[in-house]
Structure formats: C-alpha cells, structure tokens
Amino acid sequence: MNTKETFNMSSVFRKLEKYNNRHRGNIRKLFYYLEFLFLIASFPLTYWILEDIVGMDLRIDSLQYLIFGMIVVISWYIKSKVNARARLPRTQRYLYMIFSNTQSYFIITIIVIILKYLLKLDSIPVVFIVVYLSFFYVLTSFYNVIGYHFLKIYRANGYNLHRILIIADGFSDQIIEKLIDQKEWGFKIRAIISNSKLINKKFGKKIRTIPEGEDLMPLLEEKVIDEVIYCKSIIDEKQVKEIMNLCNEIGILFRLQSTVSPIEHLNFQFKTLNGTKNLTLVDGPANRFSLLLKTFTDYYFSIAAMIFLSPLFILIAILIKLDSHGPIFFKQERIGLRGRKFKLYKFRTMIIDAENKLQDLKDKNESDGPVFKMKEDPRITRVGKFLRKTGLDELPQLQNVIRGEMSLVGPRPPIESEVKQYERWQLRRLSVKPGITCTWQVVPNRHDVKFDNWMKMDLNYIDNWSLTKDFLLCMKTISVIFFATGR
C-alpha cells in the first residue's frame, strides 16, 4: 500500500470515528442489520433445499413458524450481544474466532430444539432447525471473519485502543517493539517502568518511562490502564507479588511474560502474546464455556421473564400510581463492570423528592459503610415497602440484563459516591458484571450485615463462581419474593 493510499484510508477512518462519536452505536447497528438480512435469507434457502432438492414434505403452520421466527430472532439478538466484535481478543487467530462462534451456535441450536419440544412446534422438524441454523452459521462466520479483518485495520489506524503499562528490563525491547509494530492489535503503551538505559534511550522520546520503585497507584489513577504486562527476563518475586496484588485488588488485567510462576495460585490463565505463553491474571471467573452458558441464560431468561411477567408489571405500575404521585420507574446512575456507568431501572418505592431529603437523614444511617440503610426510612411509600420486602422493585432491571449492562446474578451495582469511598481491595467487586441478585440479597436480615462482610461475600462469589451457585442463588431469591423476607 503506497503513502497516498494509506493517507486516504486514514482519512476514511478519521471520518468514521467522528461519525461514530456523533452517532454512537450506529456503526454497530449497521453490522446487526447485515446479520439480520442473513437471518432472513437463510429461511427460504433452507426451505428450498429441504422441500425441492431433498424432497421433504414441510407442512406450513403459520402460527408455529411465527413463534419459531420469534425464537430465532431473540437467539440472534443474544448471539450478537455475546459475540460482539468489540470483545474479540486482540491477538487471536481467525480459527479461534470461528471456534468461539461455533460454541455459541451449538448452544443456540440445543436451546431452540428444546424450546421446539416445550412449545410443541410439531410442524417444524429438527432437521429444518439444524439446517437453517447451519446456513446462518456459515454466512455469519464468513461475515465475522471479514468484520474482524476490518476491525484490525481500524485498530491499526489508532482507534479502539487497549491501554497498557509495561514493566521491562534491557531484554524486553523486542517485546515492546512487537507491541508497537503490530498496530492491528490496538495496544497503546501508556508508560514503561524500567531502570534500563537501553529502554529509556530506545523508547523514552515516544513513550513515558518511569524508574522502578515509584508508587504505581497514582499512575493508575491518573491514566486509564486496561492491562499491566510484566516482561522482565529475571522475575523479581517480591515486585511481581506487589504489582499482581495491586492489579487483583482494583480489577486490572495482569500478564506475566513467563511460562513458570514463582507466586501462589490465583486466577491465572496461560495466554499467547508475541508468540510466547504468558501467565495472565484474569480479573474474573475463567471458565469460558460456563460463562458463555451464563450469558445466554441471562438473556433468554430475562427476555422470557419480561414477556410472561408483563401483567405483573402492569399491576405494580397501577399500584404505584394509585399510592403516590410521581413516575412508575426510578432511574439512577450506577457503576458496573470495571467502572462503566449505566442507568439502573427499578420500580419507584420512594416519594419523588427522596434524593433531596437524604441529607437530612444521614445521621440516621444504620450501615457502617458508604451505603445508606435505614430500617424505617420515612421516604418509602406504602407500596414501596411491599415491593422492597418481596424484592419485586428490582424486576425492571431485567431490561438492564437484556441491554448487557447487568447479569441475573452478581454483586449489586453501587453508586459512584460509594465507589469513591471503597478501600482498594473492595474495588475488585467491579471486575464482573453487577447482578439483580447476589449472596447478600438472600441473607436473612441482610441489612444488618456489616459492610466489610458484604464486600467479602461478593469477592467470595467471584472467586468461587459456578453455574450451580448461580442457580441456587436464583432459587433462594424466588424464596425471598414468595415469603417476603426482605426489607
């Protein structure tokens, strides 16, 4: 590619970035629309092959095919959320991406077949479902490979960057050069911590270099850092432990450029970077397939619950309007995964000027931490007391789950003022998606639990997460709703 072509391509990406900043989400919507066209095109293609070429007698039941179409569209939406291109590992191979896509389609196929039998869609044979989803899988896999290639070019032009901090010595120069040269990976080196004169001479003019021994916390607070990479030839066990513990506390990825670890076991995985194995501290549960099942379950259950519980939603809305003046829903900015802000939805349980009256009640706070808890809060309405006691006020957060901002089970999302008062070790609870319910939510007399114990319960959930544990927490939450043991 010559200089003129590079300039023109860069100009195109600059315009694309400006357009996406003005119309945030429009580019991704365009990709979704293209996938939706594949979804539609796969249906007549499957019908034509099975009816005209294979010779199958496909009975047409309009209602059943309509229900099947709704299931497929919902499954496509969930697949698009789970396999969003922005979440692709930056250094992964195309074959791994296809394998990842295959896992998603395998889960979708099994779920759709199960729903076929549960909903008694007798006129739709299993072979039709398998062939239809196979066609859609092939089309989207081809499309995803092209999209990933485009994303690599996009990153190579300086967009969608992953910001890293490197701890290096004189033998790390080739690794640093690789991270700089492989622009399609989209790594942005914010700083290099090293005492090496070679590193300082070679990269000091372009990248901020800091001598070893300085406190890392101010640097992490000053700049957005997604990952810390330790790539020294000789491992300083004490230094590694300090940096690892710091990253572990605040939920930043830590990568150790070594095949042997001198430190005790935490949540480590071997990952490939620069053609070598790296010991990577993962800031959350590491079982990818189980996490994939959890994510699919979140979406399917939330969408189904929103549909089947719609009469209950309407009833609660009427009761709220009859009980007190004000909106049905309460919206509040909360802190989610790794500090991302989002709007949380709840049924309103307080009077409309509750936030303004909070300052007058601060001295009556019954919690020992940064959160405000009061047993007989005068701001809570009559209907609000019932909703809180049963936990029904949390139901609108199913919408947050569908939007990908929350999970069904996970630590409760805090407000920003609470996070600012967290101790460093408490920040790790932000390393996973927040949830509608959690361990604390199902504890008897949960409002009497000390704040530190609440935080430890959340960290214990993260460290010992499993699908079984999520299922049991959901069952206990249903028990809380039916027996109204909340407050």
Brief summary:
The chain is of the alpha/beta class and 487 residues long.
Please describe what this structure looks like.
The chain is of the alpha/beta class and 487 residues long. It folds into three domains: 154 residues, no CATH class; 120 residues, Vaccinia Virus protein VP39 (Rossmann fold, 3-Layer(aba) Sandwich), CATH 3.40.50.150; 196 residues, no CATH class. The protein is built from 17 helices and eleven strands. It has a seven-stranded mixed beta sheet, sandwiched between helices. A two-stranded antiparallel ribbon has the order 8-9. Strands 10-11 form a two-stranded parallel ribbon. Strand 8 and strand 9 form a beta hairpin. The N terminus is likely disordered.
Question: Secondary structure elements and their pairing?
Answer:
Layout: H1 3-22, H2 26-53, H3 62-82, H4 94-118, H5 126-156, E1 162-167, H6 173-181, E2 187-193, H7 197-203, E3 209-210, H8 216-222, E4 227-230, H9 237-250, E5 253-256, E6 268-273, E7 276-281, H10 288-308, H11 310-323, E8 329-335, E9 341-347, H12 354-361, H13 382-390, H14 398-402, E10 407-409, H15 416-419, E11 435-437, H16 451-463, H17 467-483
Parallel strand pairs: 1-2, 1-4, 2-3, 4-5, 10-11
Antiparallel strand pairs: 5-7, 6-7, 8-9
Helix pairs in contact: 2-3, 2-5, 3-4, 3-10, 4-5, 4-10
Radius of gyration: 26 Å
Q: Which stretches are poorly predicted, pLDDT < 50 over at least 5 residues?
A: 1-7, 19-25, 258-282
> How big a fraction of the residues is strand?
5-15%
Mean of pLDDT: 78
The profile of the biggest β sheet is:
7 strands, mixed
Let me know the number of strands. 11
Query: How many helices in DSSP terms?
Result: 17
How do the helices and strands follow one another from N- to C-terminus? HHHHHEHEHEHEHEEEHHEEHHHEHEHH
The rough form would be described as flat
Residues in helices, as a percent range? 40-55%
How many angstroms separate the termini?
65 Å
* Count of all domains: 3
Structural class: alpha/beta
In the sheet with the most strands, the strands line up as 3-2-1-4-5-7-6
